[in-house]
Amino acid sequence: MNCRHCGTELHHVFADLGHCPPSNAMLTASQLEEPELNYPLKTYVCDNCWLVQIGEVKKAVEIFGAEYTYFSSYSTSWLEHARRYVEMMMDRFGYTEDSLVMEAASNDGYLLQYFHQRGVPVLGIDPTANTARIAAGKGVRTRVDFFTTQLARELAADGQKADLLICNNVLAHVPDMNDFVQGMQLVLKPGGVATLEFPHLLNLVAECQFDTIYHEHFSYLSLSTVARVFAAQGLTVFDVQELPTHGGSLRVFARHSADRSKPVSDAVRELLARERAAGMLTLEYYQDFQPRVDTVRAEFLEFLLEQRRAGKKVVGYGAAAKGNTLINYCGIQGTNLMPLVVDASPYKQGKYLPGSHIPVLSPEAIREERPDFVVILPWNIRQEVSENLRFIHDWGGQFVVAIPSLETFSYAGSPAHVALT
Predict the structure, then answer these.
(1) Which of 89, 99, 287, 300 could make an SS bond with 402 (beta carbons 3.0 to 4.6 A apart)?
(2) What CATH number does residue 394 fall under?
(3) Are strands 407-409 and 142-144 parallel, antiparallel or unpaired?
């Protein structure tokens, strides 16, 4: 296997999470008795460009097909994040009715709706037909397709080039990163700006966020690697912001390398220097990750077993890819340790988690079941979830997160490490 960016042969394993089904491949009741396909979930690090990447075992068209179960608009904190982004970009770059804002992987129009509301023309691009239908209902014009070099050429030939190109949490999802970035270069106007958001590999390693590794994520990114990928396609990173989303993300601003109107900021130079100082351009940085992953698994399993021995009830919140990676790596099968998971999205309710076959119910099930512990599987929104489910305090319920280490807490601001026996 060779590196997706530079072609170097890959030899060094970053994390091996065994075999499991794709994390968003939710099951219906009729599928529970059918064979379930599992794929190796193993990541490698390239010792030339330092791109961390998964082996390509399932093609993107199979993962992001006609029906996809993730809808961005079901997270209120994510909607607020999008609204603030639009406000910031409008203030900074002054988009008008004569501009075009384009988003690759626009999902259900969660972000572009805010530009549309301000009278700025928008075009969403997303391969999933069901999310595109929801976006259309918000007035967000959406093309159902993958963003590729070929599509970018078609759009440019049709006169649709972007003043702003948004690529949030998508670069990691594309199997051919070079093709995607070349497409960005082709569809961006000469003076245009592209922004991307992606979880920062520095945080993934520091916080042992191994549950963000799943088949839908082909790549795990640092600023150093992204800057190198962009430069190869004639784009320059000119600014960067560090964000709290997804456990610590970067928002990268890019332009055509020939566009000298946007100088490279000190923030870019400082973060590149910090990554180098942390050792991200050395092999040693990536070699002690697996033992830390295994410690998290052991702690979480022991917690679940201890609660079962004590007659306590533990349920999960969030039928998210993160949780499925954790649950499947821990080898949890059936409902003995975690009888149910709840999720706010009606598109997931009534289905079953891949691999574990744990049923997914409405959040109202928590009031009915009165669990002793609610495991917040998408720990990146722990504050939002713990505030929404604060009523579990009425019967002495507590929240739990497993990453970066096992914690129980009564509300988002009050963590307390669990003492395991």
Answers:
(1) 300
(2) 3.40.50.720
(3) unpaired
